[in-house]
Structure formats: structure tokens, C-alpha cells
Amino acid sequence: MMAITIIKPNGLSEKGKRENNEDAIYPATSAATANDRLFMVCDGIGGAEKGEIASDLTIKTIAGYFQANQRKAIDESFIQNAVRHTQVQFDQYLVKNPHAKGMGTTLTLCCFSGNKAIIAHIGDSRVYHIRNGEIRFQTEDHSLVNSLVKNNIITPEEALTHPKRNVITRAIQGDSVSKAIPDITILDDLQPGDYFFLCSDGISEAISNATLCEILGSNLSNEGKTEEISNRCKEHSRDNYSAYLIQIDQVSGQTTEKRDLIAIFRNAKEFIQAQKFWVKISLALISLLIILLMIIIFTPAHEKEVKPRQKNSSSKEGNKEVIQYDSTGNSQTNPNITPANAPAAGTVSKSVNDQ
Q: Which domain holds residue 272?
């Protein structure tokens, strides 16, 4: 089985302009290594303390489920069972802590297994797959404004400033509150140098997709890219902001050192394809010109009137000069002669109460 290795990941989780941080990430930034295969970012909802509990409970429960079932194949069914297990843990917590009623959390999850990346999400936190500064995959927000955009009620631009842009339509809250069904995507087209970026909406509200691609496509180190993202959120985000930046190092023996060579081959292929297009256009134009020339050459010329030249003192009687005209009406014998009768030439918030 092909395996994926990653470069040491970079995580961040800051309270930003809020009084406390209700986000949670896994693994903790200080504990993340290149050997990790499971990454999560959760954005808690429900107000102070409740949101913190929900996000923390989720990452601990799912991480525990992965650990307890590490011999099982990680697929869509595995992820669904992990989320169901988390829902049960929520219900049990709420029975013992009724004051926490209303708590919930978003979930973004990225797990590498074999040669695949398994992506799962609930809510409006996001996962991106980015290659060479271009987004290849992005999760779709479970939010009110996204539903309005999909139904052509508002535009994507209007969604950015909509008063209910923080209202989400799906969250982990326990089965006694609502069923949490994750959207799951399995990606198997991975290359060395690819990025996976998990983030809460505190980052997506401060950094556009274009800006994110610009940062990840820059020459900064991964630490520098993470710092640049954090600095922009510190300035523009009103919320907690948390993220994980993971870069693929090796897929089936290909390392990031080969990334430039791969890009060269890809660019060469695109160049050849472009050249083929222009060759086809050129051949078409040449064919058209040949057809036009054949029409001109093989079209019979109009008959011309032959008039004898007036005799003069220097010419011998009986000698006649025949003036022939080409198809433009000019004299072939004397190009400056064009009789009057010569033929003319042709024309061609996160939920209820935290945001």
C-alpha cells in the first residue's frame, strides 16, 4: 500500500478579539509532529465555557475513538461511527451537566490513511486542498447564508456582510438535540507539496480564498506562512481563529524535492497542447489561402477588346501591337496603360447565542 508522509505541521489557535477561546485543535500545537495522521479544528458554540467544553469534548472523543480502533480501516463508515460516538458522549455529558444545554461545535477533520486523505466536516469551519497556489477542493459551509446563496436568494458578495452570516445549520450537539451528519470526502489525487488547510471561520472571515492561495503559493517557509495568516487574522478577524497547515512531503516515493521537476513536465505538457492548438489554426489558414489562390488561378479571364495601334512614322504598316490586360485591367506590356474600357479589378454565528 502506498503511504503518505508529511512535513512537520503548523497549528495556531488564538482568542483574537474575544474574551475567551472557544476553538480547539488536535493535536496541540506543541505536540504536533510529522508522524501525526489525524488533524481537527473545532469552533465551539453556546457562549463562554459551553463552547470551550463542546469543542474540547469533540476532539478528545474522536481522537480516543481513532486510538481505540486503530486496526480498523479508516473509511467513510469509520468517520460516521466516530461522530455517532461523539454524539453519545455529548448526551451523557448533558445529563450530568444540564447547565451546558445549548452547547455545540463545528468539526473539520483531515486524516491520512494509505494514499488517501479523508475529509469530514460539520458546520462552517473549512478544509482546503491546495496545490501550486490553487484550490483543488474546499468543503461547503453548513450555514444559513450558504443556503441562501445556493438558492440564488443572495449573492456570494452579499453573504460576506449578511447579518446572519454566523448562523450555522449543522453542529455536533448530541443526539438528544439534533443528529449530526458529517459530509465526508475521500481524496486520492495527492502530490508532494500539496497543502491541507483546516480553519475555523475566524480565519475565513479575515482571509479570502485568493489571499490564502497567495500566501500558500509564496516563497515563505511554512512557519512564515502560518505567521502571516495569524497576523492578518489578528488585524481583521473579530472572532477566535484557529487552523492547521499540513504539507505533503512524499507520496509513493516522490518527495517535495521533485515538485519543481513535476511542475516543469506539467508546464511543458500545457505548452505542447497550446502549440498544437495554434498549429491547427495555422494549417486551417494556410488551407484557406491555397483554396483562394486556386480559385484565382483557375478562374477564366474576361475576354479583352483588341484594338490595332495607330500607325506612326516609326512603325511599319501591317505591324500590329497586341495589348493584353491582366485580370486587374492593367496592361501587361505597359503597366502604366489602362484603357478606359478595361475591366475593373475585382474585390475580395455560529448557532443561537454565541456570535
A: 257-299
